[in-house]
Amino acid sequence: MPEPAGLLTRDEALARIRSEGTRRIRHRRIGAASGAAGLVLAALVAVVVVNPQGARKQVTVVGGPSASSSLPPIPTLAPGVMPSPGTSVGGATPSQLPSVTNQPAAVPTVVATSVPVSEFGIPTPAAGLWGLVRGPDDNLWFTEMTAGKIGRIASGTGQVTEFPLPSPKAQPGAITVGPDQALWFTESGNTMIGRITTAGLFSEFPVPASPQAIVTGPDKALWFTEPRGGKIGRLTTGGTVTEFATPTRTSNPMGVPGQGSNPYDITAGPDGALWFTESMADQIGRITTAGLVTEFPLPDRNRVHGSPDGITAGPDGAIWFTEGLAGTVGRLDPQTKAFKQFPAPTAAGPVGLAHIIAAGGALWFTDVGQIGRLTTDGRMTMYAAPNSNTAGGEALAAGPGGTIWFTESRSNAIGRITP
Questions:
Q1: How confident is the model over 385-410, as pLDDT tens digits?
Q2: What backbone torsions phi and psi does residue 152 show, to the nearest 5 degrees?
Q3: In terms of CATH architecture, what is 27-68+102-417?
């Protein structure tokens, strides 16, 4: 089925927001709220840089000013328990949005720190690094969207191996470990889902619309998002595809009006269902393996276009997500349906917070020029990235030994944090 004409993906919409200078979006940033922008960037970070040829050099990266011992209060709201919205089967008419009650929230503690960070250069120049995941072989696997390749970096040595896709126009994006212990990834350029074994053998499966994110579900199938089509897709390892439409078909007018809901990232929840972000509609969605969809509007969507982006299941049994344009990390309790929001010390403006994962009993997320760690009780730590121009949309993955790996698309490198 062709994708609806005239609709924008999340990335296209954010590009429009930047280019047109839209001011309807209110950014809850520490700098904007308190007049102390940049207080939480790390002062010095020791970095080991490894180029593709294996040469190593010690570098000192200078960050921003040192952290303040006492940060002024940040005006932010955390909603209370919200009534559960009506459950709708995919494709049904959107139902009335439930009302919510906002209550004041505690400001998270922010600590700026420095840790050893290693960088590993990618052999292919300007590869367009995108997705990242820890493979079943304990190595890190990543996608090169521009170069049309799948990469593997040895977690022990940092050695990089690249596997060119059958089609150079595949545009590989998100990547995950499948139920068969192979790596599965989206191909937005070819409108396919790709598969690669740890030995480097490829397979490809056509899907109806351009896929964005992908994850293995509790039913041992691959689940993926279709932003332009406003659908969630399901793919068996045998190649059978099923699609489920989201009930909400339009975007939040606080953002870019007249667009779709834009299902973006997706994760397996603790309740046997799949959870996903609707970045243009400012909602969190839930879909059962039978295709039953429930949507949870963000409590402040009538005032702010937060643009929920990354999503993951947290160590506390809750669903955690980022709001790139609001500069917050959000939490949704699957049982009570209560939201909480934690403002992050981002000074990046539009398109800051993006990817989020759970690792080591905490949440890790990306921001422009820094990586954040958030405990479930609200303590936040920011780590300055080796390069200040590290984009905010970088991918994250937990590696062996408690390490955190991340892509640096602008620097064309893979980074590793050793907390």
A1: 776 555 556 899 999 999 999 999 88
A2: -135, 130
A3: 7 Propeller (2.130)
